[in-house]
Amino acid sequence: MTARLVNLVFDSALPRDLAGFWEELFSWDAPFEPAFRSEAGPKRGKNRLHLDLASRSPGHQAELVDRALSLGARHIDVGQGPPEEKRVPWVVLADPEGNEFCVLEPRAQYEGTGAIASVVTDALDPERLARFWAAALGWEIGVRERAIVGLRPLDGRGPWVEFLASEDEKRHRNRLRFEIAPRRGGSRAAEVRRLRELGATGLGSTKQGGEAMADPEGNEFSVLTPR
C-alpha cells in the first residue's frame, strides 16, 4: 500500500497574510492542499523546496508575474541573472516572506497540471530521492534527465513532484514540506514502518499529532492518520 500526498506545508511568520498572497495569486487546484503554519524563526538561505507555476502563453506568463509583483512578490537572483538580461525563459520571484518560486514559460510537459506545474526539491542525488518518493506515493517516474527526475501521479491530476540536482547540502529545517497519509484502510504505524524500510528516518511526533520523518536526504515530512 502507498501513501497519499495531503498537504504542502509553509512555515510562516504571518500565516494569514501569506495564505492571502497565494490565494489572491491563483485558485489552488492541486489534489493536495496548502497549509500555512506559524513559525517565528527567520528564513535562512534558499529554500530546498519551491513551486513552479505553469503558464499557457507568453502573455499569460507576463500576466502572472505582474500579478505576483502587485501582491507583494519581488524579483530575486538565484544564479539565473537579473530579469532584464533574460538569460532563462522562466522568471524567479519570492513571495512576501522570501519563499522562492518560478513562473515558467509555456511547456507541453505541464499542460493539464493546473496552476502549479511542479513542486521542486533540490537534491544531491535526484535519482535516489525520486525512487524513494515514487515508492512512498506510488507515483511513476515520468522524466529522467541528468539534472532533474520528475514524478507524475498515476491519474495524471495535478502537479509533478521533481528533484533537481544541486551541490548545496541541506543545513536548516525546510520551510516547505509535505504531509502524507495512508490510504483508506491503512494505519499510520504501518505506514511509518514501511517508510523506514524505504530509507526514511523517524523524528518524533509533530504538534499537529502526526509522525515527523525525514527522507533519505533529510527533507522533513509528516505522516498523518488516514483521511
Any overview of this molecule?
This protein has helices spanning 15-25, 58-70, 126-137, 188-198; strands at 3-12, 33-38, 49-53, 74-75, 91-94, 100-103, 116-123, 140-144, 148-152, 160-165, 176-182, 201-205, 211-214, 220-223. The protein is an alpha/beta fold. The chain has one domain: 2,3-Dihydroxybiphenyl 1,2-Dioxygenase, domain 1 (Roll). Strand 13 and strand 14 (220-223) form a beta hairpin. The longest helix has 13 residues, at 58-70. The two termini are 15 Å apart. The relative contact order is 0.19. The mean pLDDT is 92.
Structural key phrases:
227 residues; 2,3-Dihydroxybiphenyl 1,2-Dioxygenase, domain 1; 8-stranded mixed beta sheet
Largest sheet: 8 strands, mixed
**Terminus-to-terminus distance:** 15 Å
Tell me the CATH superfamily. Answer: 2,3-Dihydroxybiphenyl 1,2-Dioxygenase, domain 1
Determine the number of helices (DSSP H or I, runs of at least 4 residues).
Answer: 4
- In the CATH classification, which architecture applies? Roll
- Helical coverage, percent range: 10-25%
- Structure summary, number of beta strands: 14
Q: Structural class of the secondary elements?
A: alpha/beta
- Would you state the CATH class? Alpha Beta
Could you list the spans in which at least 5 consecutive residues all have pLDDT below 50? none
Which outline best applies? Answer: globular
Tell me the count of domains.
Answer: 1
By CATH, the topology is 2,3-Dihydroxybiphenyl 1,2-Dioxygenase, domain 1
Task: Provide the spatial order of strands within the biggest beta sheet.
Answer: 4-5-6-3-7-10-9-8
The residue-averaged pLDDT reads: 92
